[in-house]
Hints:
The protein is mainly β. It has one domain (about 5-110). The chain is built from no helices and 14 strands. It has strands at about 5, 10-15, 15-20, 20-25, 30-35, 45-50, 55-65, 65-75, 80, 85-90, 90-95, 100, 105, 110. The strands form 5 sheets. Strands 1, 2, 3, 6 and 9 form a 5-stranded antiparallel sheet that branches. A 3-stranded antiparallel sheet has the order 4-5-14, with no helix packed on it. The chain has a two-stranded antiparallel sheet with strand order 7-8. The chain is globular, with a radius of gyration of 14 Å. Residues about 105-114 have low confidence and may be disordered.
Amino acid sequence: MTVTHRGFSAWITSEGSAVREYEVAVDEKANRVTCWIPSEEGKPFTVHWRDHGGKVDTAAFITLDGFVISGRFLFGDGEASREGIRTGPNTERPFVFRRVRDGGSWYFRGIHSF
């Protein structure tokens, strides 16, 4: 599944398959799209995004668990992805689903903001 807003799309894959989004909500004022995704603790995932030909150079930043992770540049169109965070000049730690505790409940969360 893919979430699309203002000429950009974003989606999550895990183990090579797209993860379905639920309760997709668009906040036009904040230019934000949010949704819930199912996940399985310990499984790796990749964040993908696409510029559908806006002809404007863009830079993507991914926010996971309160940490901002630099994405990739797109020069007016194209597709990019990130599957982990850099831990050194030549090393990267993969993104992995984990439990998040909020108000006494455990859940998994995914948010697209673009």
